[in-house]
Each structure stands twice: as C-alpha cells, then as structure tokens.
Model the fold of this input.
Amino acid sequence: MSYKASAADRRTAEDSQTDQALMCAAHGCPSRWSVDGPMGRCCSAHAWGDRHLWPRITQELAEAAMQRAYEAAQRQGRDEAQPSRRTRTATPAERQRIAAVLAGMARKTGGLHWAKRLLLREEAGEPLTQSQREMWRCALRVPNAMAADAAKALLIEHKQAA
Ligand SMILES: [Zn+2]
Done:
C-alpha cells in the first residue's frame, strides 16, 4: 500500500522556513496540512487514512520526503560538478552535505527511523532502488560499499559504545 502525497501536500518540510503551524497534525508527518477535518488539520493522506494506519502513513511520507530531499541534493551537486554525467555515486564531500540535509529534515520529522527501516528491508532481501540504498547509508553515515548486515552490526556496536 502506498500513500502518494497530493499536490497540496507536496510543499513539505524540505522547505526549512516551513512554519510548524502549517504542518500536518500527525506526529512526525513531513507534509503540510491541507484538510481541516475531525482529526485536526492534516495532510490528505492522514485525513483520509484510517487512524490505525497513521504510523505507517507517516513512515511512507517521511521516506518519500527524504528521497526527494536526497535526490534534489544529489542533483544539485551533480549539476555543479559534472552536468553531463547523469548517474554516479556521490563523492565523500557530497555525501557529507547530503547527510547534513537529511539530518536537518530528520530533526523536524520522525528522526532516522526511515533509514533504519530501509536497512532492515535491504537486509531482508527486498530489492531497493539505488537512491534508497545510497540514502540510508548516507543518513546513517556508513560507507556505500558496506552490506546491510555489516551496517546493522556496526550501528548496534556504536549504540553499545555510546
Ligand atoms: Zn500527514
């Protein structure tokens, strides 16, 4: 099941000037509200979605918002560096910048749970897109070449050390 953001929801927290009052009432939702209904001021996905599906709707919207932010940041670096090359892996400097963009968004929304979920999905053998595979590694600051199970082990190790 997928919840596509409507055009009205699309101007999301990616815009750093976004006023909290404009945001969807669902906790951690990255979209702006567009429907003033019984659940409060929500984006269309939350307004029309069953209440028990809200956490899942939030997850999918957060992941989609992160993906747009990731691809926009990546595109920006690419246009500046080598406009002719369409696809390539981000350089270390670009990864630093993209990771900062994702961390900024994560502070405003549901944290980095989306990235950990992508890791677990990849580890479980689900085929992810190249953007998805790169963006969770970027957000969790693990090397692009690292396998999902090794990355999970590394994160668990870091958590125990902290
Ligand atoms: Zn919402």
About this structure: The beta strands are 35-37, 40-42. The radius of gyration is 17 Å. The chain is about 55% helix and 5% strand.
